[in-house]
Write a structure and sequence with these properties.
This protein is mainly beta. Helices cover 14% and strands 37% of the residues. Strands 1, 2, 3, 4, 8, 11, 12 and 13 form an eight-stranded mixed sheet that branches. Strand 21 and strand 22 form a beta hairpin. The mean pLDDT is 89.
Length: 533
Amino acid sequence: MAINLNHDAQRLLGAYQQISDLTPAQEQQLQALTEGDKQVCRADLEKILDAGCLAKAHDLIKCDHRHDDAVFKTAFVGRPKVVKENVQIQRPNRTVVGGGRRDPYYAKMELNPNSAMEVLVSGSKFEPNVDRPRPRLMKIVARTEAKDGQPTDQDWANLDKLIKESRVAKLAWNPAGEVPTRDLDIHWVGAKTASIETKDINEPEFDFGSSIVNFSYRKDGVELSRANAVDPENIQRTTTYMQLGNTNQPDLTRPVGAPRDQPVNDQTPPETWDKKIGVEIRAKNLPRGAWVSTPNVGAELDVNLRLGSRWLMEAGASGTVTLLGKALATEVKKDDVYFNGSHSGITGVPVPENYNISQVLGQSVTKRFGRVQTDTQQANINVQSLYFAQHAGITVAGAQLSHMSDRAFSAETVGIEATKRPIKDAEQNGLAIDLKLTPEFFGLENGASVKGFTVDVGYRDAAGEWQPALHQDSHELYKAGPKGCGREAEFTVNFAEFPQARQLAHPVEIIVRDNNNIPVARVQIPLDKVDWA
């Protein structure tokens, strides 16, 4: 079910998400507000948003509603048109050769009479590799008081100030970075101009099916309105021109015959932000010494598939993510001019009882997404990469924490001190392994935490049963603090018979469980790698 927001709430949410992502708790509260098809107003939305970010969002959009409905709003007229033009050159000897390609994008707009600036952005191309995507800047339409329509130095100065006051840089992304106003793509129009048709050549942000969004601003930087145009007319055009002199360039003033147009389908899928896909795995009751290969623990695993808001951003796009047969569906409204994107969701995923943890981590989340049938795409994402993304920045015994972080103890192992000593007994063949975990056992970077992590130490006897080590404080799992061990942790593993211990392939194991009680790392310590104390 789509989130049903009124105009003011859409505007506020769009500004808020430029500053901060919604937390899972906020997303759930927002979903709950729309139960029964209730339309959420701005006051309802404000109650669930963080106060600090909310204040910044209000400042960003300058919520002055006195003028929103008092003027005609800038609107697109008809369908925009995407044309991919293949240019051919006819030489004097009548041979025809290729002359490159142009990518015009045509759009007509009826302008708000009170607007001083119109900002056109792509509704399909967004800033890459970021958590909070911004649409790509296309063009700025600005007004001038000059009768000849040519901007004066004062016009340029006013526009530069208006761009800063309206905070266009906060809303739209320019691949060229911070550039002077005069280097942007500016279309100047007269003070009384009522309508325009834009035509952009060689614009890389346009593909077949690309949509555009318009922001309209008053001269004091207050946003008046937004509008979007989706589902453009897509045309593959072939045009032949005479050769320009002795060059290999086309003479665009001398076409040969009429252009040949062919309608085509949108085949460019929407962009996705896969950081918004999450898989939660929590173990309820695992036996001591359990590892990812321990069989038949499916009944002890609670698995949730989560989809955060703004996985999809293109207006009209929809998609599903599926894990072990359970699917989550989401969509973006066709009139999503505030880039609220797709809504969030969460669903429980049943796990077969005979599964082990490794089998769950080895599954794939299938994502299927598109705006129309011809641009729909499907791809898979491995569950282990999604699950361990939450543990980025954590190292265990000197190695990055990742799926099947299974290591043998060696001189390069960090944070573990191991010695062995004989045990006084009648047979004189007893052996003890003393282990010390130092604060370096866990490594933390970029704000990572191991709060809730536990460490289990022991060995498996000849029957495969787990025999826990003696901990200096108790026989329970050692609990790590947010910053790691915090203090040294000491364990003792006793073997009553040394020959029996030698027969075990890996007699001592250090198993780390994360804050979801899932085994995530193991260090195995063979006896021949441990020196006498």
